[in-house]
Amino acid sequence: MARFARLVPSGPTLLIIGVLAGLAFPALADGARPLMAAAIFVLVLGTFLQVDGTAFRRALQRPLVWLLLPALAMLASPLAVGLAARGAGFRPELIVALVLSVCAPPSSGTAAVARMLGFDATIPLAVTLLSMALAPVTVPLIAAGFAGLALDPLALATRLVFLVGGAGALALLLRRQAAARLVQHARIIDALVLASLLLFAIATMAGVRTQIEAQPAAAFTCVGLAFACNLALQLCGALLTPGNLAARLTSGLVLGNRNVGLVWSAMGAAVSPMTALFFAATQFPIYMTPRLIEMLVRRERKENASP
């Protein structure tokens, strides 16, 4: 793990490699699939351990964090995407898939990706937690309104409590009992978080190659729409957020990258083939756009450093 820690600066590139490896080697993705829950838990735990408590509490006092971004993520974004898709004349099944993917809370790995890019991870972590608290209310309402689906709010809340509550409680215990060691082994924790992200990226490709081969035209349509939707939301987040480029790009990550797995699992057998295909397609921009963001940040830093 200490050797793997040297690869943390190359995290965005490794995530792309992970997605492509899972797509190229279906057996690898299938083997990683049962480890997804453990990977998410380690990912959330590692993020909790690395975020400064004082900075986190300070972030929660900002209206941008406790009001604007959660409202944009959980209400404005899915409604805007749904209305735009209807206005563009998309097929009903594509509209449903788009809205359901965007009504999900921000991805659990957003804070970890932000930290990997050198951004402040406290804001995405705070917004993600607040959005998850809203999810049992907003997700069933939007799913019922746009797709006519009846999702169980209690089941959603239970999943989120186990995920966030368990990781949060363990992180609090570790901070109290071994704070000095956590600081000493910060690079190892970063490596564990990256390993979890990489494992999750590989696992999300389970079954995707088969779907692409069975419906190539639909698959490419879904991938194109997934990239367009993700980038549009990231651009909105960047334009609507005050501050420097890093702060604006962080908000973009929060709005663009969504935990579709939460909605996917809540739907169960009600997931249509098109919705499942689109949900799988959303993983491509989630794990590929951080490399693009890294390039933008490096370019800005180089321009600022030049005389």
From TrEMBL:
This is Bile acid:sodium symporter. Keywords: Membrane, Transmembrane, Transmembrane helix. InterPro entries: Na+/solute_symporter_sf (IPR038770). Gene3D superfamilies: 1.20.1530.20. The chain crosses the membrane at residues 12-29, 35-52, 64-88, 94-114, 126-150, 156-174, 186-206, 218-240, 261-281. It comes from the Bacteria. It comes from Bradyrhizobium brasilense.
